[in-house]
Design the sequence.
C-alpha cells in the first residue's frame, strides 16, 4: 500500500517557499510562517499515504466495503459513506495504525529539506496530546516518536470530529535514511463512523 507522488520540475531553477497550514484546517488566527527559502537547481518530491480506510465491523456483510463503494447510502456511492477505521500495514504489534510510502530520488541527489505533515479527524474531545506526535520509521531505523513543532486544530464538524494538522522537520532523518520505504504510525484519528479522513505527506526538497 505504498503511495508515491512526485513533481516534475526537472532541472529547472527551483524557488521554494513553504508556508504553515492555514485556512480550513485551523481555527487559530495567525500569520503563516516560512518553512524554507532556497534558490537552487533541483526538484521536490511528495510521498505519503492514508491513515484510514473502509472498516468492516462485526456484523457487516463480507462485501460491505465493495457495496458501499458501488452504491453508498441512498445510492450515492461516495467515500463519505464508509465507516472508517485505521490502516495498519506493518507487522509491528506496538502500532495501531501504520502506512508507508516509497521515496525514490536520483542516486546523486542531496536532500536539502524534508518536512512531515499529518492530518486527521480526531474525536472532538479526548486525545489532545496524542494528536501532536506520530511514530516515524525510515529505511534505516526503527520507529521513533516525532512531535509537531507546528500544530493546528479546532475545526469541529457536527460536534463529533476535530480536524487537526501537525508538522515536523525530518530533514536529518531523511538525509540519513535515503531512498526506501518510510512508515508513519499511530496517528490519533476517530474511527467507526462516516465522514472521516486521515493521512500524511512527506515533502522532500532535493
Sequence:
Amino acid at each position: 500500500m505504498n503511495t508515491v507522488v512526485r513533481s516534475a520540475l526537472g532541472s529547472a531553477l527551483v524557488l521554494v517557499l513553504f508556508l504553515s497550514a492555514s485556512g480550513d484546517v485551523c481555527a487559530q488566527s495567525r500569520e503563516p510562517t516560512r518553512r524554507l527559502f532556497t534558490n537552487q537547481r533541483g526538484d521536490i518530491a511528495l510521498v505519503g499515504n492514508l491513515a484510514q480506510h473502509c472498516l468492516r465491523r462485526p456484523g457487516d456483510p463480507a462485501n460491505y466495503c465493495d457495496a458501499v463503494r458501488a452504491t453508498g447510502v441512498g445510492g450515492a456511492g461516495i467515500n463519505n459513506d464508509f465507516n472508517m477505521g485505521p490502516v495498519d500495514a506493518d507487522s509491528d504489534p506496538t502500532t495501531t495504525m501504520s502506512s508507508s510510502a516509497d521515496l525514490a530520488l536520483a542516486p546523486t541527489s542531496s536532500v536539502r529539506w524534508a518536512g512531515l505533515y499529518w492530518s486527521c479527524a480526531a474525536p472532538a474531545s479526548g486525545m489532545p496530546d496524542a494528536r501532536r506526535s506520530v511514530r516515524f520509521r525510515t529505511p534505516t531505523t526503527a520507529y521513533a516518536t516525532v512531535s509537531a513543532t507546528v500544530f493546528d486544530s479546532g475545526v469541529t464538524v457536527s460536534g463529533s470530529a476535530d480536524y487537526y494538522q501537525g508538522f515536523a522537520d525530518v530533514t536529518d532523518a531523511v538525509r540519513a535514511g535515503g531512498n526506501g520505504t518510510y512508515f508513519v504510525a499511530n496517528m490519533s484519528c476517530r474511527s467507526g463512523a462516516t465522514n472521516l479522513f486521515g493521512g500524511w505527506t512527506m515533502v522532500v526538497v532535493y
